[in-house]
Design goal:
mainly alpha; 5 helices; 86% helix
């Protein structure tokens, strides 16, 4: 009669390795999927923040123009003179925020730098317009308005930033779906 020598040590080691593999492989896949989902959420959030700041900046600039136009038209002032400095500061803060938000993308940073120049020039012309209007020099005020509209036109500059963020988001979605395919 043959006796079998059951050496338990190699079998125990193989069993422990099998259990480790059974537990760790799904964990690694789930961890990767969770990290991809978190990264995708950050991309969406970042794009939303950039777009929100760009829209807020455009709103602030339109509000500034409305204030100076009502001053030029000598419309009854309710709070135009007192609100202008605050709105001006808001617009400058928003353009700085937009610059910080797009630091991770060189082409977006270039677009924001261009927009920053336009915003600063437009605000400078608005300041000149208010000063001229308060002096009673309406011709100079209208010239400043015309300069602000022609040399420092914002149409298209902020739209380029927003459109690029949309394209980046679409690219990231494709990249994320490609990752999930593997």
């Amino acid at each position: 009669m043959k006796t079998f020598d059951f050496n338990l040590r190699p079998r125990l080691i193989l069993m422990i390795l099998a259990i480790t593999a059974i537990v760790s492989v799904p964990y690694l896949f789930l961890q990767r999927a969770a990290n991809d989902s978190i990264e995708a959420a950050r991309w969406v959030e970042h794009t939303g923040e950039v777009k929100q700041t760009a829209y807020a900046l455009m709103y602030a600039m339109r509000e500034l123009e409305t204030i100076v136009l009502s001053d030029l038209a000598r419309a009854p002032r309710t709070d135009g003179a007192s609100i202008y400095p605050q709105r001006r500061a808001d617009a400058l803060l928003l353009i700085d925020q937009l610059g910080e938000q797009t630091d991770d993308n060189r082409s977006q940073s270039n677009r924001v730098a261009s927009l920053k120049t336009l915003v600063a020039g437009r605000i400078t012309e608005f300041d000149k317009m208010l000063t001229a209007s308060n002096r009673g020099d309406y011709a100079a005020a209208r010239d400043s308005l015309q300069t602000a509209r022609s040399l420092f036109a914002l149409i298209g500059a902020a739209d380029g930033i927003i459109d690029t963020e949309d394209l980046l988001l679409e690219t990231r979605k494709v990249e994320m779906s490609d990752r999930r395919a593997y």
